[in-house]
Amino acid sequence: MIIPAFDFINGKIVRLYQGNYSNQREYDINLYKRFKDYEIQGVKKIHLVDLDGAKNFKERQVKVFKDLISYTNISIQIGGGIRSEENINMFLNLGVKQVVIGSSVIKNKAEVKKWLRIYGSNTIVLALDVMIRNNNKEIAINGWQKKTNTTLEEIIEYFSPIGLKHVLCTDISRDGTLSGPNIVLYTEIVKKFKHIQFQASGGIATLKDIISLKKSGVSSAIVGRSLLENKFTIQEALKCWQNE
């Protein structure tokens, strides 16, 4: 499916360039009107990111998300600094359908294992954001500010025995750049991990990119900047995905 994405800093919609907080662009959009349009067009899921929460969990933008979630019937998945059962329960109680876990995947594997068991594989989405060097898909955490020595493959293999199903994979070098998604990456990991439903994120600029992602075998394409900047419409994106 096509999943429109919105990132928030201080209650405002922004896009970062390659995850860099000092290189951000703000968008003046009536989000309530857009959500209503998405509902009419048949969007099934929206992806929200709390960039403040990702950087510092004490600065979580709870009120912003509470208002948005209460306004729409579209399924919401949300990420950004979710590091405890308390965080997960808070968002689920607000009406979120899926929570996206990032840094804790590296920092607190035992807890994430427990969350997969408690909440189920359809509620927990692992965000594996990678920097690729010599085909090593190294995961970055803390809003992409910290590099790790752990690879995407290692994490998927670690969590798969307990039912891991959903993975949001971002090539950081493509994120917010409109330079096209990393089709080679997605084709490779879809082929290797057939039991995982991958959400592809980063670089989508054209309808051809959407077609290429559908052909790669990913289950979803997360579309941010290209929709915000009207590179194509949500109707065109949905039609492309459905017809391919």
UniProtKB/TrEMBL annotation:
What is the active site of this protein? D7 (proton acceptor), D129 (proton donor)
Its pathway? Amino-acid biosynthesis; L-histidine biosynthesis; L-histidine from 5-phospho-alpha-D-ribose 1-diphosphate: step 4/9
Q: Where in the cell is it found?
A: Cytoplasm
GO annotation, cellular component aspect: cytoplasm
Per the UniProt entry, what is one GO biological process? L-histidine biosynthetic process
Iron keyword on record: no
Q: Does the keyword Manganese apply?
A: no
Q: Which CDD domains match?
A: HisA (cd04732)
The family line of this record is: Belongs to the HisA/HisF family.
Q: What is this protein called?
A: 1-(5-phosphoribosyl)-5-[(5-phosphoribosylamino)methylideneamino] imidazole-4-carboxamide isomerase
State the species of origin.
Buchnera aphidicola subsp. Rhopalosiphum maidis
What gene codes for this chain? Answer: hisA
